Amino acid sequence: MNIxxxxxYTKDHEWIKINGNIATVGITDFAQGELxxxxxxxxxxxxxxxxxxxxxxxxxxxxxxSDLFLPLSGEIIEFNPALEDEPEKVNSDPYGDGWMVxxxxxxxxxxxxxxxxxxxxxxxxx
Length: 126
Hints:
Elements: E1 8-9, E2 14-19, E3 22-27, H1 29-35, E4 38-42, E5 49-50, E6 55-61, E7 65-69, E8 74-79, H2 82-85, H3 89-92, E9 101-105, H4 117-124
Antiparallel strand pairs: 1-2, 2-3, 3-9, 4-6, 5-8, 6-7, 8-9
């Protein structure tokens, strides 16, 4: 199982890459494995400002639909356009081409509440 040490994580199985006041968000390798083949990613909150843990979209797999929760408060400034035609990128490259959204962080202090790679490994029993 791939859990990059340079990322932050949530208990909802999302990863966050912080670059200044911009955070890139996706779902973890563990999450995509649990969901199975992803067939659709929907984000209708582009250019909206949401609070931490609010639903920003959904990911649809063959057998289930799951909500996506925003790990940090902020404005959703970009949706990964590649996922419109190739949602399976979330399965094949969850930490690279399978990223979902970029947000402009409103409250940098919320970063402290995110999990480290070690904490996330412990959470999923890896």
